[in-house]
Design goal:
This protein is mainly alpha-helical and about 170 residues long. It has a domain of about 120 residues. Helices cover about 85% and strands about 0% of the residues. The longest helix is centred in the first third of the chain and has 66 residues. InterPro entries: DUF7935.
């Protein structure tokens, strides 16, 4: 009789244990899905809030690249004297100042994009320095002419970086 009682309790307990295990599994899966959904919604909300800031950073970097394009830079920054070295220094200082003003934007753009922007800035400075080393430049106005002439023959370094920014922004959509 005692064995029958134990067997009967066991028969009642097995379905309860199975039901409990199934309920535990479903509850665990439901909790995991809810956590994933909350994380997704939070991530989506953060992206929606960060998107305007990122776009503004890309806009500022595009403006920076436009401002350091030699043809536009030379129009905006006129020589203060006829000394070629001082004008070269003034132009380079202007580029560096523009760059430092936009330095914080690097946290909003990709590393590749930032590296391309820095390379464009450095290439522009290098182009100005090379033009200053030529023998035919002796005055600030001659330096301007040499740089502008050189820019007619090839693309500005900032053009490639600007194209990359446009591509990266279009990939965001």
């Amino acid at each position: 009789m005692e064995v029958e009682k134990i067997f009967e309790v066991f028969l009642y307990a097995v379905p309860a244990i199975i039901t409990g295990m199934v309920a535990y599994y479903f509850f665990k899966e439901h909790t995991k899905n809810e956590d994933g959904r909350r994380r997704f919604l939070l991530h989506k909300d953060m992206q929606m809030n960060a998107l305007p800031i990122r776009l503004q950073a890309y806009e500022r970097m595009a403006l920076f690249l436009e401002r350091i394009t030699p043809s536009k830079l030379l129009i905006r920054v006129s020589p203060t004297s006829s000394n070629e070295e001082s004008y070269e220094s003034l132009i380079i200082a202007n580029i560096e100042q523009e760059f430092e003003h936009n330095l914080s934007q690097q946290i909003y753009v990709s590393d590749d994009c930032w590296n391309i922007i820095v390379a464009a800035k450095n290439a522009t400075i290098q182009l100005i320095r090379k033009a200053g080393l030529l023998e035919k430049t002796g005055t600030a106005n001659k330096l301007r002419e040499v740089i502008l002439t050189e820019m007619m023959e090839k693309r500005a370094p900032s053009d490639a970086a600007l194209s990359y920014i446009k591509k990266e922004v279009s990939d965001m959509w």
